[in-house]
Amino acid sequence: MMKKVLVLALAVLMTACGQDETVKNNQAEYLDAQKNQVMPSGELTPSETIKALDQKLANVGKITKSEQIKFSTVAYEYELPDEMKQACNFDPKTPKDDEGFYKEGFCTSINIKLAKVEPRWIEQIVNKTITNDDNPKLLKFKQNVDEFVGEHLMFINEMKDVAKENGEPFESAPSYAWTVAPELIPAHKNLAQVAIAGDVYMGGAHGMPFMEYLMFDMDLQTQIDFSDVIVADRASDFHELAYAGFKEYLKDELQITTKKDIQEYEQTWQFEMTENVYFGKNGVVLVYQPYEMGGFAQGFVEIVVPYDKLQGIIREEYLPKQTAKTANQESVSQESVSQKAEQASQADKS
């Protein structure tokens, strides 16, 4: 039974986060696969989106201004099956937003929020990420939710059978909960950014929280990946900076500083690149799910690469103004120094 439970929890997480569906055997296999996943040469490959960027920017007059985003959320409406209501002591008088509703009746908690966004194209992408379903009626997504509730119902009935066999009264069962909520986080220049937070709990010691970030270029009117903003041929340089940030994380959060201790840590949690990224106040932030780069108790591992180290690595249009300006000034300064040196050399020869 527990194996089925773990498999379903993994399927739910994959639906919510868009994880690779080829890894579905059980939770342990998934975590091992994530831990041992190797990224070719540690580099991010630019997508087709940005290959056309320079051409589009050349026609900048045709690009519409960034739209004003209106963002809110709406609850995904789901009615528990009658069989579950009977099994979990469902009380229709208790408001669904009451904390005691699920605790007292141990009913399955489906607390999923969808995005309501203008412009609509962002809404469609965010909600497709949450549901993995582009049908307006979300029929496939409802099947996934039904399956989640069905597994909980099966678990409750099994516990009732065990209590009956032992001649004991059945009082309660662990609750199940599936929670998702999108949020519009601070924009970065022309990028709108959305965070999707969630958790899947299936009666264990803890749930499986997840966090996914989406970026939208409002000038290009399209979703982009982080690999799109890296200058061509500089992905390996960014990888080096990210790895340095990883070692900073080990030092600051876990007091791991020696080369030996770092190597021991990486025997279990080897550093790898991620596309789960957002532009923060002080730099680019790489976010890793629990178990990807550390134990569950470490929570979400965040690695920050400061903007002042990204000159020439991140496309200038995505760098903060001051950083981009400094990069240009340094470039002009270097050219000026070279010119003066060349002039001095010619003067000496004459």
UniProtKB/TrEMBL annotation:
It comes from the Bacteria. It comes from Moraxella lacunata. Residues 247-308 form the DUF3298 domain. Residues 329-350 have a biased composition (Low complexity). Residues 1-18 form the signal peptide. Residues 322-350 are annotated as: Disordered. Keywords: Signal. Transmembrane segments: none annotated. This is DUF3298 domain-containing protein. The lineage of its organism: Bacteria, Pseudomonadati, Pseudomonadota, Gammaproteobacteria, Moraxellales.
